[in-house]
Amino acid sequence: MINVDISNVWGKLSLPDLLASEKEVFDAHMTLTQGSGEGNDFLGWLDLPTEKETDEIRRIRAAAEKIRSNSDVFVVIGIGGSYLGPRAAIELLQGPNHNMGKGKGNPQIYYAGNTLSTRHWNELCNLLEGKDFSIAIISKSGTTTEPAIATRALRWLLERKYGTEGAKERTYAITDPEKGALRQMATEEGWETFVIPPNVGGRYSVLTAVGLLPMAVAGIDPMEVMAGAAQAKKDYDIRSFENPVWLYAAIRNLLYRQGKCIEIMESFEPGYRMMGGWWQQLFGESEGKDGTGIFPVTAEFTPDLHSLGQMIQQGERNIFETMIRFDAPEKKLVIGTDLKNLDGLNYLTGKTLDFVDEKAYLGTIAAHVDGGVPVITMDMGELNAAKLGEMFYFFELACGVSAYMLDVNPFNQPGVEFYKRNMFQLLGKPGYEA
Ligand code: PA5
Q: Could you tell me if 190 and 155 lie in one domain?
């Protein structure tokens, strides 16, 4: 289980505060699992984890093998919940530079439809030049502007390179089983499709083909991810503060009520940045509504200690931190000696980089707590595919419980429509003239 340590929040909260919230957390957890709250038609994600390989997962494996063998590059088209999960998973397990040196047999993975930047598009076109590639279009609605534009453009590139039949063999759609423009397009074009169940919202969809197909193409075993999630489903069902989900949901809400309205999630792993982005979307879209919500921000330490560190240490005291740790890897860097010692580092000779990292971590917590910032720490243990599945399920569950504690519907995102409406009006989309 993930070890949630709250010993560094006690300056701001007391044990009686925590215990007094027990009934509230219990009620929120029950509301979620019994499906009695707002948004209860979007609870399908609770039951996605499986120990048995389903037909869908078998097809995901087969498609991934085909893509791995015939593509140098796999382009994942999607935005928000239809993009962040797979990218988070792949970068956390394989590092932000995972594409280096890859090609047919183990394709590079790039993303499209997550931006409207022409520079990004031009860069992608350069990357695809002379390469064999396949695409996955991920969109539950099928009408989201960014991925829809990228889909048109990439389909054209595919068809120009491989012809209509060849392009068809290299196009995969992940969408609603029946509804939506992408479903219709896939049926008419004869693409292989995978399903986002109707009762699973975008940001809770990483344990469907949305996350599992790109992961499988990257060589991550979907069943190992699912095994971790299935175990998490059992482990995190405890109805007491023995449950780390309860601790996390309760503490962040209690801190919020004390004016700590910003949560910064940090990790000392560069590969965690996109996982932070996934978490940020999950909590941001689930909780930020009705004039309430904890603002989720993600940072990477130690780099951001040299940018945000000053603000965290001495800025407005409206923040708390959640720090993520993983076990150190087996392969070590041992710091060497230097006869001149001009950098003054010889006192570290023979020590490992992990040793320094650990001291930076401990030193940072102590400094921030001294500066009046409560710090929740999460010790994740070993970083592997099962852990990834566990983390996804853990945070989704914690988010559902926490949002119900905040008294908001965790499964809608009405505010996202506002920018779209203005954009459509400016673009002259039919129906948006007024
Ligand atoms: O979490 C969500 O529901 C959103 O972030 C969606 O995933 C995102 O807007 C993309 O929507 P769609 O999958 O319909 O293209």
A: yes
Please report the atom of ligand 1 found closest to the CA of residue 78: 15
Residues 6 or more apart whose CB falls under 8 angstroms from that of 177 comprise 183, 195, 197, 198
**Counting every residue, how long is the chain?**
434
Separation between Cα atoms, residue 118 and residue 101, nearest integer Å: 26
Q: Are residue 185 and residue 264 in the same domain, yes or no?
A: no
Tell me the whole-structure pTM to 2 decimals. 0.97
Statement: residue 434 has pLDDT above 80: no
Q: How many CB atoms lie within 10 A of CB 3?
A: 12
pLDDT band for position 314 (cuts 50, 70, 90):
very high
Identify the residue whose C-alpha is closest to ligand 1 atom 8.
80
Q: What are the C-alpha distances in Å from 433 to residues 148, 403, 426? A: 21, 36, 8
Domain holding 54, by residue range, is 46-221
Domain count of the fold of the chain: 2
CA pair distance 15, 112, nearest whole angstrom: 47
Question: Does residue 139 line the site of ligand 1, with CB under 6 A?
Answer: yes
Active site includes 306?
A: yes
Q: Is 147 in the pocket of ligand 1 (CB under 6 A)?
A: yes
Average pLDDT of span 22-46: 98
Residue among 233, 192, 194 nearest 212 (CA) = 194
Q: What is the DSSP letter of 372?
A: T
For 416, the enclosing helix (H) or strand (E) is none
